[in-house]
Design goal:
The complex is a heterodimer of chains A (259) and B (630).
Chain A (H helix, E strand, L loop, with lengths): L3 E10 L2 E11 L4 E5 L6 H9 L6 E6 L2 E2 L5 H6 L2 E4 L11 H12 L15 H10 L15 H13 L5 E5 L7 H18 L2 E5 L3 H7 L2 E6 L2 E6 L1 H6 L1 H23 L1
Parallel strand pairs in A: 3-8, 3-9, 6-7, 7-8
Antiparallel strand pairs in A: 1-2, 1-4, 4-5, 9-10
Chain B lengths: L2 H32 L6 H22 L3 H25 L9 H23 L15 E4 L2 E4 H23 L1 H11 L1 H6 L4 H21 L11 H16 L4 H21 L4 H15 L29 H20 L2 H26 L8 H16 L5 H23 L4 H21 L1 H4 L5 E2 L10 H24 L1 H11 L1 H6 L4 H27 L1 E2 L6 H14 L6 H16 L6 H15 L3 H13 L13
Antiparallel strand pairs in B: 1-2, 3-4
Helix pairs in contact in B: 1-5, 1-6, 1-8, 1-9, 1-10, 2-3, 2-4, 2-8, 2-9, 3-8, 4-24, 5-6, 9-10, 9-11, 9-16, 10-11, 11-16, 12-18, 13-18, 13-21, 13-22, 13-23, 14-15, 14-16, 14-21, 15-16, 15-21, 18-19, 18-21, 19-21, 22-23, 22-25
The chains are: A alpha/beta (259), B mainly alpha (630).
């Protein structure tokens, strides 16, 4: 069954149409990028899938079950992990504790008074940190980390609930170029290995064309292209309204680099 | 009720609305620009009234005419304006970036200082003011007599509204105020001299407060409780209208004025409750008030620096804790009666402060009305033991349950807000509780409270009661401390650190905050219950704003970022208070100055300062931790 099906999503903010009849599908293990100029409705679409926003109309199906209109925590329960454009972590806690919190919540122990939280699920937390290359920093306060590392911790947190779908809103925003490639490589490897579908938005065309299996181009709330990277790159409309000549050159470069 | 009666009643509602609006507009303008909720606004109002009862009679000596009366009122208001500007330069300027808890506390420090100064200068007795010449008669409206001065007040409110409109629309200063209310940073970035803008705003705000106060002198006898009684009403008006919105304050004042005028006919005892209920309902439906708009800063509470870090107890800490417990156990054996009494009070206050720290430090929920739950526990125990005829044991068990039930009720609304609106709502619920206990004389004994709340005979000796209190408070503190380290406490911290992230990993933020609020309220209620049996009586001061502030001071004194700080803070605060209060007539002045000094100099409290000293002596490895999130 198709992992994620989005049908006819609409959202207006006053007179502004942020999403018009947005629809797409995502298979398990696939990476789908949403790109588009600022204000195209990327984050809106994203937040409607993640539960942060309620669509005016349309449906979001996860494994055939409707999830649109549910609260973020309910969407998460059904197997959707997410990271944020500006990384959201628990700044008063250590790296490991951040991941442990997600595990504690996943095991339904958040209201428990019994155990000491810092010892709960620590081995699993360390395994997850290993996966994103942060195990060595497990006991450092998360607020001491460089921003790129915070983003990796966030990925580990999102993976803690063994999600079927990962939502990553601009996963590499604010990171140095080298860190960006690293993070995207890690994400892609995990997604393929664990058959996780990844939906991400991104401004960095290198990251998009190097890692996405499919690309969705959104302009003023409407999808103007949906296809494989080489299809999107050569799409005349996309070239005209978004990528421009420089963008296409970057896309070519990214493809070559990957091949 | 005939028509003429309704008209008269509604006119008198308009007159109070008009006074309320004049005062509230000042508070809301000051908040809009500086983002500080100025607790001392009520003090400025009171100063306006006191200055007017001094100045206006002098003016009337010269010529007994309405213009001289108005001149006197105006001069008083101008002096208050200057005082407000001075307050901005001396104090507010230094705390614009401070967490809102500190801002509220610092301005409350000013309230305390002004209270003592007013008593020193004018005395504690009520002062009747002079009547306004030419406005002493009544006007007949639909056959009913209505005081001319009240009509004049309605006019004055409209004049102030028109004046403010002109100021805001037609002058550069007004444009800057509106601009700063919308986006303070942008106004600064455009090169506006912020210092003058802020000082000018405070002058305007204080002038309006002073004007409101000075205009009251023919209506009410001037007294030293005017500040607190007006400030709560004005808070309600500005919160309902939307903080920073002058039209909002106007509409809200109209609503409140009418609600009071007609509410008093239907529910004479609980008009104050009606007013606060209205505020609670508005905040639930429109969390930013009728005309307020959400601003980026209001979405997230600015929390005190170095918020709770959860270090495990080291060896040294364990030794200190063990010694402290040993000293407590030995106190009734070696100490005299007085020491045991102080010991009981310290233990009770420590539990209350600890429960508040649990909310603020762990939950990031800055409650400005924690005395409500302490007081509810005390009243529950006291009333059950006297009027309910229960023994001490069941009364003590019921007191945290009843306080917890009320905390659950109030908290359900409170935890849905954040920042300054949350603080205001906690204050509002505390004032409702206070008002009910104060006004429901048949049950609560009103101002005098209830006496004869004595422990059971086996616990009637002070020494035995001390051990009882020690057992209860210590177990409650240990249980709460345990909760901080359990998943529940971590979940609460998670919700505080990032509500968005907490929600995205399945934590129901509102629910966990609600449970925490209830738990904390129950713990404070237990403290209150123990307190009422130790004092043998209950009275409304246990629920009052100063009590809430005392708790906050204890938490801050101990340091907000340590688990055990509030216990030390309660001990230090109560000992100091107990020692100094009998020695001086100026306890409030002293306390006010201390609060301000603490906020300015030691924002991290005793324990924070100690850990800072400790860190200085050991070389810090690695980079220093950053105070805020990226």
């Amino acid at each position: 069954m198709t992992l994620l099906v989005v049908e006819g999503l609409n959202k207006r903010f006053g007179g502004v149409v942020a999403a018009r009849d947005v629809g797409f599908a995502l298979e398990a293990g696939q990476m789908l990028a949403i790109i588009g100029p600022n204000g195209a409705g990327k984050s809106t679409t994203f937040n409607m899938v993640g539960g942060q926003l309620k669509p005016d109309s349309g449906r979001v199906l996860l494994d055939g079950q409707p999830i649109s209109g549910l609260a973020p925590r309910a969407v998460w329960r059904r197997g959707v992990g997410r990271t944020f454009q500006v990384a959201q972590t628990f700044v008063s806690m250590s790296v490991a504790e951040n991941v442990q919190m997600a595990l504690i919540s996943w095991h339904g122990q958040i209201l428990s008074f019994g155990a000491r939280a810092e010892t709960l699920h620590r081995p699993q937390a360390l395994d997850l940190l290993d996966l994103v290359g942060m195990r060595a920093d497990a006991d450092r306060p998360v607020r001491e980390l460089a921003y790129g590392d915070v983003k990796r911790v966030e990925l580990a947190v999102a993976l803690a609930s063994a999600p079927k779908l990962l939502l990553m809103d601009e996963p590499t925003a604010g990171m140095a170029p080298k860190e960006r490639a690293q993070l995207m490589d890690i994400t892609a490897a995990i997604a393929r290995e664990r058959k996780i579908g990844v939906l991400f938005t991104e401004h960095d065309m290198d990251a998009v064309f190097a890692h996405a299996d499919r690309i969705l181009v959104l302009v003023r709330g409407e999808i103007i292209a949906d296809g494989r990277p080489d299809e999107v790159r050569t799409n005349a409309r996309v070239k005209q309204v978004y990528l421009g000549d420089m963008g296409v050159a970057a896309a070519m470069r990214a493809r070559r680099g990957r091949a | 009720m005939d028509l003429s009666f309704i008209v008269i009643q509604s006119l008198s509602g308009l007159a109070s609305a008009s006074s309320l609006f004049i005062i509230a507009s000042g508070l809301t303008i000051v908040f809009g620009v500086t983002r500080i909720v100025n607790f001392a606004h009520g003090s400025l109002y009171m100063l306006g009234a006191y200055l007017a009862v001094t100045i206006v009679p002098m003016m009337l000596e010269v010529d007994r005419s309405l213009p001289m009366f108005l001149l006197g009122v105006l001069v008083s208001a101008l002096i208050v304006g200057v005082i407000g500007a001075g307050m901005e330069i001396l104090l507010l300027r230094r705390i614009y970036k401070a967490p809102e808890l500190f801002q509220l506390l610092a301005t409350f420090g000013v309230v305390l200082i002004v209270q003592d100064l007013v008593i020193k200068v004018w005395g504690a007795v009520e002062i009747p003011g002079p009547r306004a010449p030419s406005l002493r008669h009544g006007v007949f409206i639909m056959g009913e007599r209505f005081p001319a001065y009240e009509l004049f007040l309605i006019g004055a409110g409209l004049v102030v509204l028109a004046g403010l409109w002109l100021l805001m629309q037609r002058t550069r200063f007004g444009v800057l105020i509106r601009a700063a209310t919308q986006d303070r940073e942008m106004v600064g970035a455009l090169g506006v001299n912020q210092a003058w803008l802020f000082t000018g705003t405070l002058f305007l705000g204080a002038f309006l407060a002073g004007l409101g106060g000075a205009l009251q002198i023919p209506r009410v006898a001037i007294n030293t409780q005017m500040d607190i009684s007006i400030i709560t009403e004005v808070f309600v008006v500005t919160v309902i209208g939307g903080m920073g919105s002058v039209p909002g304050a106007f509409i809200a004042a109209l609503i409140i004025g009418q609600l009071q005028a007609f509410g008093i006919l239907i529910f004479p005892k609980i008009t104050l409750v009606l007013v606060f209920l209205l505020m609670a309902v508005v905040l639930v439906i429109k969390p930013w008030g009728l005309f307020g708009r959400p601003d980026a800063a209001a979405g997230r509470a600015i929390l005190p620096e170095g918020i709770l870090s959860l270090k495990r107890f080291g060896k040294g800490d364990n030794v200190v804790a063990a010694v402290a417990i040993a000293v407590l156990l030995a106190l009734p054996i070696f100490g005299d009666n007085y020491m045991v009494k102080v010991g009981i009070e310290v233990l009770v206050l420590a539990l209350a402060a600890f429960s508040l720290q649990f909310l603020i430090g762990v939950g990031g929920i800055v409650s400005f009305g924690h005395a409500a739950y302490f007081g509810l526990g005390a009243y529950a125990a006291g009333l059950l033991a006297t009027k309910g005829g229960l023994a001490m044991e069941p009364a003590l068990i019921l007191s945290p349950l009843i306080a917890g039930a009320f905390a659950a009720l109030f908290g359900y609304f409170i935890v849905r807000l954040s920042g300054i609106y949350l603080a205001m709502l906690t204050l509002a619920f505390a004032q409702i509780t206070y008002a009910v206990c104060f006004q429901w004389v048949e049950v609560t004994g009103g101002d005098n409270g209830v006496v004869g709340v004595w422990p059971s005979s086996w616990a009637s000796s002070r020494q035995v009661y001390f051990y009882l209190v020690l057992a209860f408070t210590l177990s409650a503190i240990i249980a709460l401390r345990h909760a901080i380290y359990a998943p529940f406490g971590y979940g609460l911290r998670a919700a505080r650190d990032s509500a968005v992230r907490a929600d995205a990993i399945g934590i129901d933020v509102a629910r966990i905050r609600w449970f925490a609020f209830t738990l904390s309220g129950a713990a404070a209620g237990l403290a209150g219950g123990l307190y009422s049996f130790s004092k043998g009586s209950i009275d409304p001061t246990m629920i009052s704003i100063p009590m809430s502030v005392d708790f906050l001071v204890m938490v801050l004194l101990g340091g907000i970022q340590t688990v055990i700080g509030p216990v030390a803070g309660a001990a230090a605060f109560h000992s100091i208070k107990d020692f100094f209060m009998p020695l001086t007539d100026f306890w409030r002045l002293f306390l006010g100055l201390s609060i301000i000094a603490m906020v300015l100099v030691f924002p991290r409290g005793i324990a924070g300062a100690a850990s800072l000293l400790g860190r200085r002596n050991t070389p810090a490895p690695g980079p220093a931790p950053v105070g805020s999130s990226p």
